[in-house]
Amino acid sequence: MRNCAALFLFASVSLLPVLGMAAPAPNTAEPELPPLTDSDSTFAGNVSALNSFEITISKMATTHAKRRKVQELAEKLLKEHTANQKTLSALTLKHGLALHEEMSSDEQQIAEHLETENGSKFERDYLDLQAQASSDALAMFQNEAESASDPDLKAYASATADNLQTQLTDTMKLGANKPSR
């Protein structure tokens, strides 16, 4: 699983191209606000893919994990990332940007590998992936909270960074290995 964690780290720190992860919204209505900058659009596309990954593996953990505490964490993260995705989608749509809610191919491979596990091995790998994802995302959100051009996106990034810090702490309490970085 260390290979999966390393692969995830590589996938999460490399920027996903904006094309394929985010696209202009269909011409159903004029956007309320000017388009997001390329940097803000890239951030939104990366977050959308990461939310999809987190939702997918948290759904798995609700049934594959052995300990009730891990299942409860997974249920909490599933709700948080689903709400996070809805908030982000609504925010970007105001700028005329529709997000694709698909994982990167690397994240898809990791999720497929995790699906084959169960019990304590699944829990260990799930917690390690969650800790690494939270750590990587925390840095990305903190950067966006400082540098976003759009004030709403800046506020969203700041508020979400606080939640990510809590997620990281929660996964560590349940036995996740310290994320690499």
TrEMBL record:
Keywords: Signal. Residues 39-173 form the DUF4142 domain. PANTHER family: BLR2558 PROTEIN (PTHR38593:SF1). Residues 1-22 form the signal peptide. The keyword Transport does not apply. This is DUF4142 domain-containing protein. Pfam families: DUF4142. It comes from the Bacteria.
